[in-house]
Amino acid sequence: MNRNTTVYLYELAWILPSIAIPVGMLAALTVTAFGTGIHLPSMAGRVDPRRLAETAPFDAPGVVQIAPGVFEARMTSQIWSFTPAEIRVPAGATVTFVVTSRDVVHGLYIPHAHVNAMLLPGQVTRVTARFDTPGEYPIICHEYCGIAHHAMAGRVIVEPRR
Ligand code: CUA
Prior knowledge:
Blueprint: H1 3-35, E1 62-67, E2 70-78, E3 81-83, E4 86-90, E5 93-101, E6 106-110, E7 115-119, E8 125-131, E9 135-140, E10 153-159
Parallel strand pairs: 2-5, 4-10
Antiparallel strand pairs: 1-2, 2-3, 5-8, 6-7, 9-10
């Protein structure tokens, strides 16, 4: 075996995995996407982001009380705001946020309420939190969504019980 052949075999030992690895990954991706039906992370629901104006509950964003002390906050997100921008509930409320995006990926982050979720166009996000302490809780978009991403915010106002 002369020196040139040795170099060739050594190169081949590197070239073959560099082809096999991406081909293998692409095959794994194809199988998981189409074969095993892996999809968006939540089964909370799918919506058509272009038809939110006529899709319940996003046709009427706002807070509704569904049981004593239990609320549902139906919200949409869009560049660069939340609708509604302000949620008002009494202290002790359990709030389920039902949120989707009209356009691009946004985030729903409420630091002191342990809410941290992604908002994807076409996907409904449901996340529940309890608000025991009265005060103002900022709602922050924590997924970069464009030039005014940093200004995209809302708030939850928890009112003291009377
Ligand atoms: Cu919406 Cu960042």
